[in-house]
């Protein structure tokens, strides 16, 4: 793990340090838009994009490897609905970036996680009222035995803030992390965004009580207050289309099956898209766009990265090398 971090630093960190407004740090790669749920705050399942073949997914993973990315999150929809997920994970695990895998699968323990997590650095389980799968908190002790750092990803909608502390405690007891984020109001959905001040204050209070459990950085709230979202994070749809500058604008100007990411990022259209993002007044609260820049800011790096990587380096023996 340390060797991989050094290798990444030598290859990509200069791009981020010298021009982190251009080169992304984190990518969310949606392997499928298919999903078993119909979360009221989500619109992905309403207009699913066509899926790439296994070989096309590999091409996009290679494209991402030829850029500045530190972490790639494989997600959906529900990525476990793809029959080729073992092959995709094995291929992704050989890339130079860290791999995060997000699932909300109800029957989660029926999958061979001992094998899958050999290729996954961070296993995220989406558990919240929207997915109607709160019983998965009971599965955390068993899931925590595998190779990856285990994290619960919970979306907080209106009326759900008071339930946060119980969720955080359950994660701490199981040795898992928790990423807390608000329900972003997406096009075609009802507005389930929580009361911001109450959400912020309760998350920060819990973060002080459970500093090694909650991953959500305090810089996320600072950036939201200032209106400072950034293109340090990108999202790729399951057809290879790149949402840019952000997902909420619902615009995919290029397809990464056809265009090299690092070439597009230096192009005038990409520069214009980043300028559009800078002028945006939405303050949608999308975690990736307001939080990921914290991890590329040297002044905030330790506060942002430490809770995420603490366990990974402490118990590196059984994890990916």
Mean pLDDT figure? 87
Contiguous helical run count: 12
Helix and strand succession? HEHEHEHEHEHEHHEEEHHHH
Low-confidence stretches: 298-305, 315-321
Helix content range of the residues, please?
25-40%
Percent strand? 5-15%
The assigned structural class equals alpha/beta
Radius of gyration: 18 Å
CATH-scheme architecture: Alpha-Beta Barrel
CATH fold descriptor: TIM Barrel
Give the strand order of the largest sheet, numbering strands 1, 2, ... along the chain: 6-5-4-3-2-1-7-8-9
The total strand number stands at 9
- Major sheet size, sense and barrel closure: 9 strands, mixed
Number of domains: 1
Quote the distance from N terminus to C terminus. 5 Å
User: What is the CATH C-level name?
Assistant: Alpha Beta
Full CATH superfamily name? Aldolase class I
- Global morphology: globular
Structure report:
With 321 residues, this protein is of the alpha/beta class. Helices cover 38% and strands 14% of the residues. The protein has a nine-stranded mixed β-sheet with strand order 6-5-4-3-2-1-7-8-9. α2 runs parallel beside α3 (85-92). The radius of gyration is 18 Å and the shape is globular. The chain starts with a helix and ends in a 7-residue tail after the last helix.
Summary?
With 321 residues, the chain is α/β, with parallel strands linked by helices.
Give a quick set of tags describing it.
single chain, 321 residues, alpha/beta, TIM Barrel, 9-stranded mixed beta sheet, 12 helices, 9 strands, disordered C terminus
């Amino acid at each position: 793990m340390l060797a991989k971090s050094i290798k990444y630093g030598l290859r990509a960190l200069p791009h981020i340090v010298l021009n982190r407004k251009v080169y992304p740090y984190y990518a969310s790669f949606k392997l499928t838009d298919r999903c078993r749920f119909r979360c009221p705050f989500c619109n992905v399942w309403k207009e699913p994009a066509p899926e790439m073949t296994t070989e096309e997914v590999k091409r996009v993973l290679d494209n991402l490897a030829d850029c500045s990315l530190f972490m790639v999150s494989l997600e959906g929809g529900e990525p476990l609905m793809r029959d080729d997920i073992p092959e995709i994970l094995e291929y992704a695990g050989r890339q130079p970036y860290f791999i995060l895998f997000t699932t909300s699968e109800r029957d989660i323990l029926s999958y061979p996680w001992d094998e899958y997590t050999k290729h996954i650095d961070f296993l995220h389980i989406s558990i919240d009222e929207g997915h109607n799968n709160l019983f998965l908190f009971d599965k955390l002790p068993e899931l925590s035995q595998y190779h990856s750092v285990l994290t619960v990803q919970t979306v907080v909608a209106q009326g759900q803030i008071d339930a946060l502390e119980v969720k955080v405690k359950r994660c701490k007891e199981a040795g898992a992390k928790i990423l807390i984020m608000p329900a972003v109001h997406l096009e075609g959905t009802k507005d389930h965004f929580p009361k911001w001040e109450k959400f912020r204050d309760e998350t920060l209070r819990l973060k002080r009580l459970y500093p090694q459990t909650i991953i959500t950085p305090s810089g996320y709230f600072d950036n939201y207050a200032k209106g400072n979202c950034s293109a340090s994070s990108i999202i790729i749809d399951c057809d290879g289309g790149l949402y840019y500058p952000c997902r909420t604008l619902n615009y995919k100007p290029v397809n990464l099956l056809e265009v090299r990411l690092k070439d597009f990022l230096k192009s005038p259209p990409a520069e214009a898209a980043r300028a559009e993002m800078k002028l945006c007044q939405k303050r949608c609260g999308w975690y990736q766009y307001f939080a990921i820049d914290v991890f590329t800011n040297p002044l905030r790096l330790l506060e942002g990265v430490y809770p995420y990587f603490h366990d990974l380096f402490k118990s590196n023996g059984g994890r990916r090398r």
